[in-house]
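Q: Structure tokens for this one, please.
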Amino acid sequence: MLDYVILGTLALHPMSGYDLGKRMDGPGRFIGYRVGLPQIYRTLAKLTDRGLVAFDVDPRDGRPAAKVYRLTAPGQQALLEWAHSPYEPAPRPMDPDFMLRFLFAGILGHDIAIGILRTELEYRRAQRHDPMSIDELVADNDPIADIDPAWAAHIMHTAHEYGRSSMTAYIAWLEATLAEFENSHPAATSAS
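A: Here is the predicted structure, written as tokens:
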């Protein structure tokens, strides 16, 4: 996935590996995907070897020169192919893969973003309508002597309720975002 995070970020703006790391630790931290600088540099080297990115050396006053990476034509093609490939939601709700796909594939087109939203929403609605009852899990418990069964059941119910309410809020966000995108004209969204 890091390949496409880097390709998508470079599609927006050329930058150094260090700047990629700062972006992921800064504003990018809210997409739920963290990666260290060594992994970014290894991935940039791999993408350079594959011809998907290229770099220019930027001399910097009083500091070491920086390699500023940019997307190549084959890199653009790889990003487009990934954006148009089928999106398969992860079983875990709110998995970072959705937000990464939504962000870095969705920027390539209105219809791509809508398709990703529809797929995620359909999957999460089906998942919500087929829940395992927490009571079934609690009834099967045979805890060790140090665990109070009533307290364990209370903790499990509370955690389950957190998950259900998070899923409900997530589905509401998906529905609202999809409705907004379906009711907006692609040219209007790209102009803002």
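A few notes: The radius of gyration is 22 Å. The first strand starts at residue 15 and ends at 16.
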